[in-house]
Design a protein that fits this description.
about 240 residues, 3-stranded antiparallel sheet, Rossmann fold, about 30% helix, 8-stranded mixed sheet
């Protein structure tokens, strides 16, 4: 096992299905209610991707926390279904503790509706771990996985994001990721039409994003979560006023 490989335990959820659980962060990788619908609601709807994908020839998503690859697969599936045929999605993700191939396969077996896309990802997963940008799904999707601390990895990056998926483990359990350094890097890598979405509604995250120039709003959360955050970059650092 590599030193930076994720340490996974498997717990049975309420439906009796095995669910990956991080031993290091004491947190789940996706909702025990419905991981697929969680991604659809929080990240795809939260960034209004269906409305944006069908008119663009290229789009870049940057994600903090690749995890099982579920968010990537859902975004890729939507892109393949509705984006113009010659268009390209570039999905860039940062992961400090990547899953082993064995755990990735086991986790994605829980989502049979993604089976065709999953097979392509699994086949090229060793190349992804070697930090190569790969092309999948008839060359229509590029995937870049950066392994390491999110803020440090992004500091050497230049690609502007059209949308952010903030999906690290919960701020209370992984506070090192959710800080001013990350939000500053997000601002540097955003433009005035860049959006963001995250499952959390933690006050420190909301205020940090606002201080970095993002206009942030709350909406109802998924499943057991009461609220989540979504928003857009304004390039206006005086906008950082806390929501009520």
């Amino acid at each position: 096992m590599q030193n930076n490989e994720a340490h996974i335990t498997w717990h049975l959820n309420e439906n009796g299905d095995p669910q990956p659980y991080s031993s290091l962060f004491n947190d789940v990788y996706f909702s025990s209610d419905d991981g697929l619908n969680e991604t659809e609601y929080v990240f795809l709807q939260g960034n209004a991707l269906a409305e944006r994908f069908n008119t663009l020839n290229q789009f870049t998503i940057i994600e903090t926390g690749f995890g099982t690859g579920l968010n990537f697969l859902c975004a890729a599936q939507l892109w393949l279904n509705i984006a113009p045929a010659q268009s390209t999605l570039h999905f860039i993700s940062v992961e400090k503790y990547p899953l082993s191939l064995h755990d990735l396969v086991k986790a994605l077996q829980l989502f049979p509706s993604l089976q065709l896309l999953t097979a392509d990802l699994i086949a090229q997963y060793p190349q992804i771990l070697s930090r190569k940008t790969i092309r999948l799904f008839n060359q229509r999707v590029k995937l870049t996985l950066m392994i390491g601390d999110a803020s440090q990895c992004l500091s050497g990056f230049q690609h502007k994001a059209d949308a952010w998926f903030l999906d690290g483990f919960a701020p209370a359990k992984n506070p090192d990721m959710w800080g001013e350094t990350l939000f500053s890097q997000m601002a540097r890598l955003s433009h005035v039409q860049t959006t963001l979405a995250t499952f959390t509604s933690a006050g420190a995250v909301r205020r940090g994003l606002q201080a970095a120039g993002f206009k942030v709003s709350k909406r109802a959360g998924f499943g057991k979560k009461r609220e989540m955050l979504h928003g857009c970059f304004t390039d206006n650092f005086s906008l950082g006023k806390p929501l009520d």
